[in-house]
Design a protein that fits this description.
The complex is a heterodimer of chains A (about 130) and B (about 450).
Chain A lengths: L6 H5 L2 H18 L17 H8 L3 H19 L20 H18 L6 H11 L1
Helix pairs in contact in A: 3-5
Chain B lengths: L3 H21 L15 E5 L2 E6 L5 E8 L11 H7 L10 H11 L1 E7 L4 E8 L3 H14 L4 H20 L2 H14 L13 H4 L4 H11 L5 E6 L3 H11 L20 E6 L4 E8 L12 H10 L13 H6 L5 E9 L4 E9 L1 H20 L4 H20 L1 H13 L7 H9 L3 H13 L3 E6 L15
Parallel strand pairs in B: 2-6, 7-11
Antiparallel strand pairs in B: 1-2, 3-5, 3-6, 4-5, 8-10, 8-11, 9-10
Membrane topology (chain B): Peripheral membrane protein
GO cellular component, one term (chain B): mitochondrial inner membrane
Subcellular location (chain B): Mitochondrion inner membrane
């Protein structure tokens, strides 16, 4: 989740967004995970502490549905079959349920690191510099 | 994302505000306090507040909410709300809050009693603005995130439970309150078994409880060590957007029942013998000063070393060396419990509990000297005045008094009222106690500890 991304750059420029979003939608469908009944967030590698904590924070229903989708996809993969079209994930169902939680956890860790490295001037110095600037 | 310079800048801004504050209110330690121990009360932005300007470099600021275990919607909610204090708010995260407080220098704590939930901050005088804003954020902007409930709050609640289970005195007092008042005041201060609260805890429900508990009509801000003008200014600014209009927390008027309960325990022996006592001073008309004098007369613990003291139970228990007796009136807003606690080895506790009943019978029959009653009156007055002077107890009592619209804990009046208690009132009180159904809680080695019938009490 913490890899560098052009997505914010594109989203903030409407002319670029107009060109890129249809292509991105086509690419997501072409990747094929939707035909196995999965969502994009099901594919996030979970072998690290951040995602493990995010999974613990999922609401119970989301966690249950995720396990169901993973088991169904695994079974389809074993039998070398795709799911019937009515069970494919629809684009409007392909929501990011795990990504925001991961972002929140990373922000908490980053804040903790920042606070560790903070430099704090003493009160008298602060008062002196405030007087100078007034 | 927070960068190093932006954090130091925001801290600088917070500190600058205190420097401005400091110029307008410069005190040194030798300056005399503006008021006596009397509280000055007022109301700003719909929130009642009280302050007294005690001398000293620090200020203690509390927010008292009428949300103790008596008013909780479901088991464990008061405890959970207390433990959610100083967790992430919409303005800053828990980690950042603690770091900022550490940098300024201060002490944060929260606790709950049977009727009140108290959030307290102690800090240097010049930081009043920051900490008023902090407490206002805690009561109005806490997120009550589900992951914080599961990862942090529930863990600490379960540890607190284990602490309670290992403490026979706590269990005995909890049990005595439960027997005496059933629901309401009788709800245990901390639940004793883990399933009792985990099935009720839900962050959404706790948020709903907080909407009612922290609404403007249900809280009071009490401060020691700051002037009223300063406090009113910051209360007006920061408590403007506290919750309003939550469902009002109500509890039916307390009724005394009584009964007996016996709990087996390996790690100590406690007997609590309790009777209907007096409500606290701030409750108004139902306060009975003679119960306080009776408690001092029964006593058990001397305030003077190397002597058992004048109190009847102390003299009686001096024969049973391994028993420790103490008497206390637990006063609440509309009822109280006069409880005699006997702890020690099982055999001595059993013998000492007989002397409790004998002492009460002696007082009721008038077989106690007038001098002893005078001593008890003096001790009761001293204890009441010292409680008012003690910062913690005075803050909670004042806060709860303000919320219920009664009086703040004004020390001068309490001393005068206790002085007026006469011998016959004390004897009448003792007689009425013996006539009512007693509450007896026994925790420990049940084979050796007596029943209430054995010691002559009516159950």
């Amino acid at each position: 989740m913490s890899q560098p991304s052009l997505a914010p750059f594109i989203r903030s420029r409407p002319w670029l967004k107009r060109w890129m979003v249809p292509f991105a939608n086509w690419y997501a469908s072409a990747q094929g995970y939707r035909k196995l009944g999965l969502r994009a967030d099901d594919l996030i590698p979970e072998e690290n502490d951040t995602v493990q904590l995010a999974l613990k924070r999922l609401p119970p229903k989301e966690a249950y549905d995720r396990v169901f989708r993973l088991r169904r996809a695994f079974q389809a993969s074993l039998s070398h079959q795709l799911l019937p079209p009515e069970e494919h994930t629809k684009p409007e169902e392909d929501i990011a349920y795990l990504g925001p939680i991961i972002t929140e956890i990373e922000a908490e860790n980053q804040e903790r690191d920042d606070l560790e490295e903070m430099f704090v001037p003493k009160r008298k110095q602060v008062a002196a510099s405030a007087k100078k600037s007034h | 994302m927070l960068s190093r310079t932006s954090i130091s800048r925001s801290c600088t801004k917070a500190l600058q505000r205190h420097c401005v504050c400091r110029r307008t209110q410069i005190r040194n330690l030798a300056a005399a306090a503006s008021g006596s121990f009397q509280y000055e009360t007022g109301e700003e932005a719909g929130v009642k507040y009280a302050s007294r300007d005690l001398p000293g470099p620090t200020t203690t600021l509390t927010v008292v909410a009428k949300a103790g275990t008596r008013y909780q919607a479901q088991p464990g909610f008061s405890d959970a709300l207390e433990k959610f204090a100083f967790k992430s708010t919409t303005r800053r995260s828990a980690v950042r809050m603690i770091r900022e407080v550490e940098l300024l220098g201060g002490d944060l704590s929260a606790y709950h009693s049977r009727e009140n939930l108290v959030i307290r901050a102690k800090f240097l005088r010049e930081d009043l603005a920051y900490f008023t804003e902090l407490l206002a954020d805690v009561i109005s902007k806490t997120k009550y995130a589900p992951h914080e409930l599961n990862e942090q709050v529930v863990r600490v609640m379960k540890l607190g439970q284990k602490h309670l289970l290992a403490n026979p005195s706590h269990m005995a007092i909890n049990s005595a309150h439960g027997l005496a008042f059933h629901r309401g005041l009788g709800t245990p201060l901390y639940p004793t078994s883990s399933t009792t609260f985990s099935k009720y805890l839900d962050s959404e429900e706790i948020y709903n409880f907080a909407l009612s508990a922290y609404s403007k009509s249900n809280i009071a801000v009490v401060a020691n060590g700051t002037s009223q003008s300063e406090l009113s200014k910051w209360v007006r600014e920061f408590f403007e957007d506290a919750y309003t209009g939550g469902r009002k927390l109500e509890s039916p008027p307390s009724k005394y029942y009584g009964g007996e309960e016996r709990i087996a325990h390996d790690k100590g022996n406690v007997m609590v013998i309790a009777f209907p006592g007096s409500s606290s001073f701030t409750s108004g008309s139902s306060w009975k000063p003679e119960i306080g004098v009776l408690a001092a007369l029964l006593g058990g613990q001397s305030s003077i070393k190397w002597t058992p003291g004048f109190s009847l139970l102390a003299k009686a228990a001096s024969e049973h060396q391994h028993a420790h007796v103490s008497t206390q009136n637990h006063g609440y807003s509309d009822a109280g419990l006069l409880a005699v606690t006997v702890t020690g080895t099982a055999s001595h506790v059993g013998k000492a509990s007989h002397s409790v009943v004998e002492a009460l019978k002696k007082i009721a029959s008038g077989d106690v000297s007038g001098e002893d009653i005078k001593k008890a009156t003096a001790l009761a007055k001293f204890q009441a005045l010292e409680t008012g002077q003690d910062i913690n107890a005075g803050l909670e009592a004042t806060g709860s008094g303000l919320i219920t619209g009664g009086k703040a804990y004004q020390i001068d009046e309490i001393g005068q009222a206790i002085d007026k208690v006469g011998e016959d009132k004390v004897k009448a009180a003792a007689k009425s106690l013996l006539d009512t159904k007693a509450t007896v809680s026994t925790v420990g080695d049940l084979f050796a500890l007596p029943y209430a019938e054995d010691i002559g009490l009516k159950i």
